[in-house]
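User: Please run a holo structure prediction.
Assistant: Happy to. Please share the sequence and the ligand.
User: Here you go; the ligand is flavin-adenine dinucleotide.
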Amino acid sequence: MTVLDAPVLVVVDHADGALTAPSAEVLTLARSLTSGGVTAVALTAPDLPALARHGVGEVVVPDLAGLAPEVAAVAAEAVLAAVERTRPAAVLLVSSFAGKEVAARLAAALGSGAIVDATGVEVAEDDGLVVSKTVLQGTWETTCTVTRGLPVVAVKPTSVDAVEAPGAEPAVVDVPVEFSAAAKAVRVVSRTPHPRGGRAPLGEAKVVVVGGRGVDGDFSAVEALADEIGAAVGATRVATDEGWIDHAAQIGQTGVTIAPRLYIGAGVSGAIHHTAGMQAAETIVAVNTDPEAPIFEMADLGIVGDAAQVLPQAVEELRRLRG
Ligand SMILES: Cc1cc2nc3c(=O)[nH]c(=O)nc-3n(C[C@H](O)[C@H](O)[C@H](O)COP(=O)(O)OP(=O)(O)OC[C@H]3O[C@@H](n4cnc5c(N)ncnc54)[C@H](O)[C@@H]3O)c2cc1C
């Protein structure tokens, strides 16, 4: 496989001071693309032990001069300073809402191109990057490439399995940044972290258990199965509109788009507005009392039954098998 000679720069995210799982995935992908080493750029205090475990040789820490990294203009200009310092062959980020905006701003500043929601990246014979992504609500698989300037690619969480490649603790390089008036114009006056609970964030989870109208207001069986298998909990719009679960759990056209390895839907009919946000899931399991429910047309495994009975049976069987 062809690899790049120059380093790949990865914008790494942290949550509660720790490197996030999607950033570990992007670092794994970056290592596969280059023989020139992986450099990270961190906009908050870097988690050096985790970066060392993921083979990062150097971490660039831009001086934000007290500005907030949540402001996209601040983040993009800080990453631009890291690009100028590192001269990488490509920049990779996590394809979160924030990551996509930073990717777009960075590419605009560089006069190059950005590809977001990537599910895979390879190096072509001409050293260009061939990027795969699904489009049109997960119905088409495409490949694309940035044809001008430094490629900026935002990679969708769960597209890659994170693999560690332990090395020495990375060197930390502080870089100054000349912020524009636009970046300096926003001041963050307060922050209220969204309560995360113990489960993985929906957009990053490899396994998601979803409840629809069929759970009839009771998410306890969905949550019990999710906790048993280390999954995130999602919902249809009916369930969130009814107030059975927070709106942040809504999957679909007007909610979160997910592409987990495993989707388990309980009491979900499979309406197009919902499936638009989950049909890229690798394996789909559906539990529904109606054998004619549309979700069975896309399910790899369909169980005709009452979710309130089937899910607890699954939990019981899993516990039995684990001894
Ligand atoms: C503009 C627009 C945007 C929308 N955006 C979204 C979106 O982002 N996300 C989204 O989800 N929806 C969205 N919707 C709503 C969407 O069209 C559907 O109404 C919704 O997804 C249906 O949710 P549901 O499957 O929970 O409910 P239903 O369609 O009512 O299906 C409930 C299912 O549960 C089954 N069931 C009943 N009892 C049980 C039981 N005990 N055990 C097992 N199965 C049982 C039934 O057989 C049925 O198939 C949108 C709609 C519009 C108009």
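Residues 72-86 form the longest helix (15 residues).
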